[in-house]
Amino acid sequence: MSASLAFPARRRTTGEALAGWMLTAPAALAYALMLLLPTLATIALAFTDYELGADGLAWIGLDNFAELLRDRGFAIALRNTILYVALVAPLSVLGGLALALLIETGTRGRAFFRAVFFLPVVSLPVAMAAAWQYLLHPTIGPLNAALRGIGIEGPAWLSSSDTVLLSLAAIGVWENIGFNLVLFLAGLTAIPRELYAAAEVDGATSGWERFRLVTWPLLGPTTLFVVTITMTRAVRVFDSVAVLTQGGPNKASEVLLYAMYEEGFTYFRLGYSAAITLVFLAIVLALVWLQTKVLEKRVHYA
């Protein structure tokens, strides 16, 4: 009797497992084909001298990485990427938080301002880059025209080595601040209103005290997520550089992803480009690990 009952139970368990594998198979196959296999291929190519269109390739070990250490162009791209992230990430996070607090405390137009600031996130990067190219044009651009109206001669924003990275960083802040705004608004909405009333009863009467004692600690998980996403998005900058400056002038705006693209699809050195890609991935993983280790200890989970 017990054996006859156990057999249908085992068959039902096997059927459920088979159904689970069938349901997950499309996602697993897509993951393997679109992410896992290309990543493994990139890792393998980084240790070869493969060039696009070549008949074969040779295993050269760490020679590509040794060349990276001697490559002045790579050093410039790495420096520009670090400076770009150092400008874009804090301004995007603090600006998004400030705007979220202003919108949250307002009584009217929340949906309107939320949509306006989120617009750059859903806009086509290439189209927006073309608009910025017009706005920052040294002769016909509205920005320099406004500066000339008050007696200031504006610079060639995208054509000068002194201002090109600052201009791209300003565009990066504009692209990221709306995304951070929406995330911070979601975090602010999740904070119970009763805590503000309790803080006011305990003597926290000013807005700064309520922010310091209630809002900021409870925004910890949201802030950790925003900082991680913003720094990752900033390191991945490519579209604005490719459309507006192509890494110029004199490599003043060349970043890691553009250097990787140029080596792979302009000079056809896919092995060397793959080595840059691995360095880029290592930097991203190191940033995520560092942020998680440092900020996780300060995060308060309600």
TrEMBL record:
The chain crosses the membrane at residues 21-47, 82-103, 115-135, 164-191, 211-231, 270-290. Keywords: Cell membrane, Membrane, Transmembrane, Transmembrane helix, Transport. Residues 78-291 form the ABC transmembrane type-1 domain. It is a multi-pass membrane protein. PROSITE patterns: ABC_TM1. One of its GO terms (cellular component) is plasma membrane. InterPro entries: ABC_transporter_permease (IPR051393), MetI-like (IPR000515), MetI-like_sf (IPR035906). Pfam families: BPD_transp_1. One of its GO terms (biological process) is transmembrane transport. PANTHER family: ABC TRANSPORTER PERMEASE PROTEIN, INNER MEMBRANE ABC TRANSPORTER PERMEASE PROTEIN YCJO. This is Carbohydrate ABC transporter membrane protein 1, CUT1 family (TC 3.A.1.1.-).
